[in-house]
Structures are given as structure tokens and as C-alpha cells.
Amino acid sequence: MTEEIRWGVVGPGRIAEKVVADFAVVEGARAVAVASRSLQRAQDFAGRHGIERAHGSYADVLADPEVDVLYVATPHPQHHAIALAALRAGKALLVEKAFTATVAGAREVADLSRETGVFAMEAMWTRFQPAVVRLRELIAEGAIGEVRSVQADLGVQRDFDPTDRLFAKELGGGALLDLGVYVVSFAQMLLGDPDTVTATGSTFETGVDAEVSLLLGYADGRSATLMTSLRNALPGQARVFGTAGWIDVLPRFHHPQTIVLHRAGAEPEEITLPQLGGGYSHELIEVTECVRAGRGESAVMPLADTLAVQDVLEQASGQLGVTFAEDAAVL
Question: Which CATH architecture has domain 5-125+280-314?
């Protein structure tokens, strides 16, 4: 492994544009290649970001010997096949959330990562935000006692367009895989894996979920109440309730700068911790450091947590009659 960790981008879409810009503030990491099924699109992306090599197929970047890590930002159902091929090629992985389209697909990727010892992590940037890191520290210190409940919402209003990826079932559209993954991962981070999942909501005519409310239940009475939507905007706030106070995570909670600690009997304490760069830098730093150290996965975003979140998402979508499949033909 070279001292500099060399990254390749798979899928030069909207989110990749933002993530790649943050390499400018990540020490010891550099984006050196980009791959798309359209060579022109890859070349345009490479030109905008000063990336050396543009590949016109995913197979080409998998075979690129000058790439150590692949950042996968294709539509959700394509993650599974690309991730498996990358792990077999010895390429470490940062895979956009949702990690895959199905629990079975996620489990297969996690199993291969563990079997080969090649690093893999879901790109849940929320867990690495400085304000969220401080939130977890405060909870571990007992600042609000025992956490008993979590509330979180994340939604945007999008005009229905059956040709848009967000509404296309074959591309993993719908609110849950795009936005619901944030609220579920946040709750799972603080409460662990739920014992029960109850979902209610509606679907678009293309067969993907439009809005979902979830109740996650725990055998000891703890709970999470979560909302996600593509039908209407939601504040993007979160609140963590404990036996000795609560913490507000100010909008938008999935990349917050400010949390407010409410200790029982005390004045609120506002804590502001800005992100480095656009905020994606923190997950890039985590992967870079893990790969350099030879770790198989992240302690902050372990594969077990990703699998637990995928399970909740699949249970919730299933209760609405929505099912997804992995795209085996992407390569």
C-alpha cells in the first residue's frame, strides 16, 4: 500500500460531485480515476475535478492497478455487483447509502469483505460529523442518562416524474432508500437493532414508497419514531430523549453543525462544531486511515450496523408492498 491512498469514483453523479470536492481537505488521499458507462461523462467529470484517468466502463476501473479504494455512487441496485467485483479485485470500498437494494445483497457484500479482509464501509457521513461525534460522547458520559427514545425526520418535496431515478423502481427509487436510510441509521446508532418494525405510508404509481412513518420497538420499551418523505418537505430535525434530559440536533440532522443539550434542571447548552470542507471529508478521512492501517471495517460505521439498517428498510418497504432487486447486469 502506498503512503498516499488513491481513490477511484464509480458513478459520477450529483453526490459524487460534492464528495470529490472534499479530497482537497483530506491529507494523504487523492482521487485519481473516475468510471462511468459513458466515457464522455467520465471525461467531463475528470476535467472538472482534475482527475487523471477517465474510464468508460466499471470493469476498467476495477482493473486499474493505480486505484486503492473505490467510492461507489451509482443507483442503489448497482452497488451489489460492483462491490462484489471490487472486493474480488482487492479494492477497498466506500459505498453510498443505502448500501444495497436488499438485505441479501448487503449480507453478501459484508460476508465477502470479511472473508477477503478487504475494507468496506457504507458512506453514512452523518456518523462522522463533528457535532454527531460530540452527541455520542455526551451520551456515553451520561449527560442525559439512559437513552429511551429517538425522533428523527427527513423529507423533501419532489414533483412526480416516472423518468427520474428517485421514482424508478428498477433504480431503487423511493423515500426509504434515499432518505429513510438516514433516520433509521441515526436511531440504530443510538438504540441498537430494533425488535419490531412497524411502517405506514403511501406509494407512487411506479411502485416505490412516497412517504413512510416508522415505529421501531425494543423489548425493554425503548422506541424510535421516524418519518421520511418524497411527497412533502420535513424539517430534518432529530431529538434524543434520556432519563435525565434530551439533546436536540438542529436541522438538518444528517449533517448538523449545532446540537443543544438539555440537562434536567439546567439551562440549555448550545454546542456548535462546523464540518471540515463540505462535511464529506470526515468519512473520507475514516476510510483513508482504516485502509492505511489495514483494517477490514470501521468501528464507527461497522458492517453489522449497515446490515441492521438494511433489514429495517426492507421490513418497512415490505409492509408497504414495495420490494427491490439487485442489478446483476451492471458490469
Answer: 3-Layer(aba) Sandwich (3.40)
